């Protein structure tokens, strides 16, 4: 690993832990993504994480708070890190190719099929509370069906 990669690995540790600390499993390889997608039944909340400010100040906090308010938590909480775990991110995005790639973003999958997608355009520039409320509303609908 070169000095840049080592530096970035250290920089993103706290960014990774924000989601892991609220129950997310990191999928860091394409094989881990494929295994999750093959085996996961029910609802998966997928966060495409990133180093940008809107991930730090909006997406990750909104997701963490939304999980405290939903009627029923998703069956699976998983995350890939754009720009860091490139193979895993590319592979996850392949499961919902119908939406343009963006990070951060939030995908809700039901039995492996995309049910809802919140792109960066609906995160960046919006109040965290509004993103959280949007996610709670969608999760309550998807997990109830």
- State Rg: 14 Å
Main sheet specs: 5 strands, mixed
Helix- and strand-based class? alpha/beta
Q: How much strand content do the residues show? A: 15-25%
Report the oligomer: single chain
Q: Give the strand tally.
A: 5
Average pLDDT works out at 94
Helicity range of the residues? 40-55%
Number of helices: 5
Order of helices and strands: HEHEHEHEEH
Detailed description of the structure:
- The protein has five helices and five strands; from the N terminus they run H-E-H-E-H-E-H-E-E-H.
- By secondary structure, it is α/β, with parallel strands linked by helices.
- The mean pLDDT is 94.
Task: For the structure shown, list the relevant keywords.
single chain; 145 residues; alpha/beta; 5-stranded mixed sheet; 5 strands; 49% helix
């Amino acid at each position: 690993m070169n000095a840049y990669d080592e530096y970035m690995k250290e920089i993103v540790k706290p960014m990774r832990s924000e989601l892991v600390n609220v129950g997310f499993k990191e999928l860091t390889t394409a094989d881990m993504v494929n295994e999750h997608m093959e085996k996961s039944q029910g609802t998966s909340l997928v966060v495409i994480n990133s180093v940008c400010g809107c991930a730090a100040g909006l997406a990750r906090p909104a997701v963490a708070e939304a999980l405290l308010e939903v009627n029923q938590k998703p069956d699976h909480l998983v995350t890939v890190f754009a720009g860091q775990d490139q193979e895993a991110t590319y592979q996850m995005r392949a499961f919902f190719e119908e939406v343009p790639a963006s990070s951060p973003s939030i995908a809700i999958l039901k039995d492996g099929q995309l049910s809802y997608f919140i792109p960066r355009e609906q995160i960046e520039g919006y109040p965290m509370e509004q993103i959280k409320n949007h996610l709670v509303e969608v999760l309550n609908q998807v997990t109830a069906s």
